[in-house]
Amino acid sequence: MLLYSILFVLCSIHLYAQSESPIKAGPMVTHADMRQVTIWLQMTKQSDVRVQYAPIDASSAEQHSIIYKSDANNGHRLHIVLDSVEPGKRYTYSVGVNGQTIRSAHPLEFSIPPLWQWRSDPPSFSVALGSCFYVNEAKYDRPGKPYGNDLGILSGILGKKPDLMIWLGDNVYLREADYTSRIGIFRRYEHTRSIPELQPLLGSVHHYAIWDDHDYGPNDSDRGYLLKQDARDAFMQFWGNPTYGNASSEGIYTTFQWGDVQFFLLDNRFFRTPNKRMTGERTILGQDQKQWLIDNLVSSSATFKVIAMGGQFINPLPRFENYAIFKQERDELIGLLAKEGITGVIFLSGDRHYAELSELPSSESGLNYPLFDFTSSPLTSGTFTSATEQDKNPLSVPNTATYVHNFGMLEFSGAGNSRSISFVLYDKSGKELWRIKKTAEEVGFKKR
Questions:
Q1: How far apart are CA 344 and CA 302, in angstroms?
Q2: Sign of CA dihedral 360, 437, 112, 210
Q3: Taking the CB of the first residue and of the last residue of the chain, which one, N or C, has fewer CB atoms within 10 A?
Q4: Are 40 and 75 in contact (CB under 8 A)?
């Protein structure tokens, strides 16, 4: 059966020269639930795009295909929904354009989350993390030494075979020539997404994203950014999150679940008060998003509730764009977690150009468990060489502050009431730098 699956992917192949490829970027695997998965693609011109897919080790009866037509009105970008899938299966897929199958130099695969509830233990799985992904383009970069590092870190991430990847903001760096026009925003996204080094990672790992200032607008940008709706349009067209904001078409926040973990992807830009604003309410999330977050945290039955946002949440120093510069809202959110009895909360962040794990003790939070914030930054942009005394995070877990290009990993494992989460940091080659493991009970989960 394995041979049949391989033949299914490779049959009817038409080999295009790289310069003649009808695919500009992708395919990229995005959100999956138990009934469907979405594949993202961008074509070079109007095309009939056919995706064929089947479970690995499939019989001929389990092969499926679907055809979409690309459209110039949205830049020939496609979100192709595959809905003939079954929970818990791993699939292989291929892409055909105008009747000819395109050979891929790397595996094209996706997974459907298992239906484990009331049947088995939750699945073990891993999630790659990264932020601050700067891709050089000399024509638009500032003079001097290129700000972007080499792109080998992408191979390092793929080598760990994560099930998912969460991009923690600054996934694209808008330059001065970009953020003053809609076309500039879209062209920057296209340039970053289409680099050859990125394609293998896109093709077989499920990708989710939040944004931060550089893929939203200018440095430290906020709710006043003139083109924020254009930035939102670009984000929606280039990513495949399950939803984007609320019913009034505001922001990009969303949530999804994989196994016994619920992820909350927050928007720290669209509603943000300017950092230097001295009057009026000071907020990062805005009232609607804040209430949405607490409502969904209260309703969640997940063992772990993972909250991702661009800036650090736990670090108490009001420096740069840590949540501490919005101290009232930070304290309000921690207070609500305690008053509502919300357990199993973990924070993820990027932005800072170094990595660390922060821990807020229960004695300071009012919760009956410590809060952790795993910061993973940067992938390729410039790094802090070290922290000055005024920048040292007093809640940094010893020996976790790391000042090299890096990516993070969350590993969820264990049976039943013995679930655990591991925070792991790797350098750009995939070498493990540190690992810290916490049981579900250590982050507040109560045995059922």
A1: 8
A2: positive
A3: C
A4: no
Torsion sign across C-alpha atoms 363, 366, 368, 372: negative
**Cis upstream peptide for 242 (omega within 30°):** no
User: Considering the entire predicted model, what is its pTM?
Assistant: 0.94
Please give the structure tokens belonging to residue 435.
Answer: 């690992």
Tell me the residue type at 433: L
User: Could you state, in order of their start, the residue ranges of all structural domains in the chain?
Assistant: 2-111, 129-443
**Among candidates 220, 401, 395, which has minimal Cα distance to 315?**
395
Q: Shortest CA distance to 164 belongs to which of 28, 291, 274?
A: 28
Burial class (CB in 10 A: 0-12, 13-18, 19+), 85: buried
SS3 277: coil
Q: Mean pLDDT of successive 10-residue segments in the chain (448 residues)?
A: 38 43 96 98 96 88 92 95 97 96 95 96 97 97 94 98 98 98 98 98 98 98 98 98 90 98 98 95 96 97 97 93 96 97 97 97 94 98 82 94 97 92 98 97 80
Taking the C-alpha atoms of residue 425 and residue 408, their distance in angstroms, rounded to an integer, is 5
Pick the CATH number of 2-111 from 2.60.40.10, 3.60.21.10, 2.30.30.220, 3.90.226.10: 2.60.40.10
Helix (H) or strand (E) holding 153: helix 153-159
